[in-house]
Design goal:
Layout lengths: L14 H14 L12 H8 L3 H13 L3 E4 L3 E4 L12 H14 L1 E11 L2 H6 L7 E11 L2 E11 L8 H6 L2 H7 L4 E12 L2 H6 L7 E11 L4 E10 L13 H10 L1
Antiparallel strand pairs: 1-2, 3-4, 4-5, 5-8, 6-7, 7-8
């Protein structure tokens, strides 16, 4: 299990919601992979320093979202089909959204350095662990206040180079296209987590404050991953707006059923 953090008495988020957010983030980051059995409630209570009622309420919320399944007499498990049917969206919608965000905000505290890829980043970028990657990080500000922190990774062997001024002006996947990489799509995963000491300092919030966590892997025309990133936004400053439509054929099917 990930190191226990953790429940912050200073944040306004209820204790059960903090436990819920942590468990949910551990489900999506692979700490508890699909099919994994959760520790017993008593162990979770000890880990988080909360009551059984608090832990049970958090688990109830995750079960209602179909992320957890209770098996009578055996325990609680992460659902097996967690990633079997990813939601399909419009890449252009993502580009428009990030472009609007860039127009309304500013980027600062940019840092570009070369590091060795850990196992997660190597897996995302189809590299061997230890291969060199560029780690590009920055803080995004709106109305003079920090709202998000982003870290992107791009393989050094790609031959691409980036400057601080470029990062301040453009999204990284937009820069990739400017530098000749044709983008075909991206895999996006939105979850939740709580601010640790580093993120709390960068975002000028308290340790344990709720954050929206967004993992993004961008692919080129050959379906090869070219960028992997993770972003953290203050929960009260992030909105995810999707307009859903149905095909005429499917509407007719439903009418026929009625």
């Amino acid at each position: 299990m990930a190191d226990a953090p953790y429940i912050n008495e200073l944040t306004k988020a209820p204790r059960y919601h903090q436990v819920y957010a942590l468990l949910k983030s551990w489900i999506f980051d692979g700490t508890f992979p699909p099919g994994a059995k959760l520790p017993a409630e008593s162990e979770l209570c000890e880990t988080f320093g909360v009551s059984k009622i608090t832990t049970r309420k958090a688990i109830d919320m995750l079960a209602s979202e179909k992320l957890l399944v209770r098996v009578q007499g055996k325990g609680t498990y992460v659902t097996e089909d967690l990633a079997s049917a990813p939601n399909l969206g419009d890449m252009e919608q993502l580009i428009r959204k990030t472009r609007r965000l860039a127009q309304k905000s500013q980027v600062d505290n940019v840092e570009i350095k070369e590091v060795a890829a850990d196992e997660e980043i190597a897996s995302d970028l189809a590299l061997d662990p230890g291969e060199r990657v560029y780690r590009i990080s920055f803080v995004r500000y709106m109305d003079g206040k920090p709202i998000g922190h982003r870290i992107a990774y791009i393989a050094v062997r790609s031959g691409l180079r980036f400057t601080v001024e470029e990062i301040k002006k453009h999204q990284t996947f937009a820069l990739l296209e400017k530098k000749g990489v044709r983008i075909s799509g991206a895999d996006q995963l939105i979850g939740a987590c709580l601010a640790d000491t580093t993120k709390a300092s960068l975002l000028q919030t308290t340790v344990g404050a709720p954050l929206v966590r967004i993992r993004l892997v961008v692919f080129d025309d050959d379906a090869k991953p070219v960028e992997a990133s993770v972003s953290f936004y203050l929960a009260d400053r992030y909105q995810h707006h999707v307009y859903l439509t149905r095909s005429p054929e499917r509407r007719e099917d439903v009418v026929g059923e009625i």
